[in-house]
Amino acid sequence: MKTPNTARTVGPETARMLELGHPWVVADAYTRKWPAGISGQTVELCDSQSRFLATALLDPQDRIVARVLDSMRIQLDRSWLTGKLRSAIELRRCHADLNDTTAYRIVNAEGDGLPGLTIDRYGDYLMLQLYSSAWRPHLKLMTQILQELLSPRGIYEKSRPQKTRELEAVSDSKSYGRLLAGTAAPPRLEVLENGLTFLVSLEQGLNTGLFLDQRRNRRDLMGRVKGKQVLNLFSYTGAFSVAAAGAGAGQVTSVDASAGYSDWARSNFTANRLNHKQHEFIVGDCLAVLGKLAQNGKRFDLILMDPPSFSTTAQSRFTTRGGTSDLVAAALPLLANNGLMIASSNHQKVDTADYLKELRRGALQAHCDLRVISLLGQPEDFPYPVTFPEGRYLKYAVCVKSEQVTDKKKQ
Fold first, then answer.
1. pLDDT at 309
2. Which fold has domain 211-410?
């Protein structure tokens, strides 16, 4: 029998979105009238006619005040949660290419019917990330079920604090991860991706040092770099650089503003028995470095840029929306004719069409033509519902540069 205080009425626009399958209820004038509730409580969403729409997880203090768990009436109990986790694990077993890989995503939030929660596997360890505090009351049950299903050596939670943009630059050494169950991982844990070894941290930093959603794209890169001069901008801990060097690139130049990340990248080279001294590591602001490389007459066969959505250095401030075109314009003069420019962004609020416009602006500034020959996204372990366009966030555009030829008749 329905408990009266679990019902929550949504406005007509939200009701329409829920009927179309979107999993979020964003705070508005209707949700402000809801009775008080506690984070992690399950509620029934109804329209103005009291017609049931979905069961959702309540998060009253968040902008997304409720996240849909099911289109049916359910209880968030051991049986339901076990079913969701089994389904997510089975999807990876059947459909994800995980050959020579021990680091991948097991639960991708809305894509696996557990909105606001991700679970990643790093070797014998699991990492939970809560993007909604509504999951915290269910963390103990979640941990118990994961131990039963996967028998990990340890389970970590890495918190997602507010204002991550401000924290990102100083987060290298701060511990955001905590051990929930099992034994602790080493400070640098070795995992495999596409047969290569990478070092990750399950405790320190906002991120682990390896972005799992780029796994398939790194494999794509490995087929394009043999014997080539490669420039990797915003190289972070050097995962793309290691992939390029491991696949036979002539030389890889890695540029990042953080000396700590550059040292981590060298360690990743060493972990794969790659001599990092045969490659180049530059610590500095990417736009400033591009200017110096151009002055020195450097040329590359392939330039890759995978910047964070937002970053600030002493010299500049980068944002995907608006900053990408300047970055492309500065990089293209260093790229050989018919060379490859690979531009990637994980900015959820910039869709593919708008991102390609940024690439177009940069190409026009540099008086070059760019032709897209491949447009990829996240791999199979990062599924998203067709009803949730926000879930398709990763853009990875492989482009060929052609220098524009001046028409003498127009001179």
1. 72
2. Rossmann fold (3.40.50)
Buried b (16+ CB within 10 A) or exposed e, 106-140: bbbbbbbbbbbbbbbbbbbbbbbbbbbbbbeebbe
Q: Out of 3.30.750.80, 3.40.190.10, 3.30.2310.40, 3.40.630.30, which CATH number does the structure's domain 78-186 have?
A: 3.30.750.80
Which tokens go with 404? 């524009």
Q: What CA–CA distance (Å, rounded) separates 135 from 39?
A: 8
Please check the confidence at residue 2 and state whether its pLDDT lies above 80.
no
Tell me how many helices (H) and strands (E) the chain has.
10, 21
Residues found in the chain: 411
Instruction: Read off the pLDDT of each residue in 75-82 and give the average, rounded to a whole number.
Output: 98
pTM above 0.70, yes or no: yes
Roughly what angle, to the nearest 10 degrees, separates helices 78-95 and 139-150? Answer: 50
CA dihedral 168, 311, 400, 248 (to 10 degrees): -40
Residue owning tokens 């050494």: 173
10 Å CB burial of residue 263 (0-12, 13-18, 19+) is: middle
Measure the CA–CA gap between 265 and 238, rounded to whole angstroms: 4
Contact 91, 48 (CB under 8 A): no
C-alpha 83/C-alpha 275 separation (Å) is 47
113 closest CA partner among 138, 92, 89, 85: 85
Residue in this structure with the two tokens 């007509």, named with its chain if needed: 12
Mean pLDDT of 283-310: 94
Nearest to 251 by CA among 234, 274, 227: 227
DSSP-based three-state secondary structure for 385: coil
Q: How far is the C-alpha of 4 from the C-alpha of 33, rounded, in Å?
A: 15
- The domains of the chain are located at 4-70, 78-186, 211-410
- Determine the 3-state secondary structure of 233 from DSSP: strand
Whole-angstrom distance, CA of residue 308 vs CA of residue 263: 19
Instruction: Give me the torsion for CA of 282, 287, 293, 298, rounded to 10°.
Output: 100
Confidence (pLDDT) at 206: 87
- Distance CA(356)–CA(4), nearest Å, equals 49
Ramachandran assignment for 328, one of left (phi > 0), alpha (psi -120 to 50 degrees), beta (any other): alpha
User: In CATH, which of 2.60.40.10, 3.30.450.20, 3.10.129.10, 2.30.130.10 is domain 4-70?
Assistant: 2.30.130.10
**pLDDT confidence tier of residue 163, bands split at 50, 70 and 90:** low
| Closest-CA residue to 113 (of 81, 157, 139) | 81
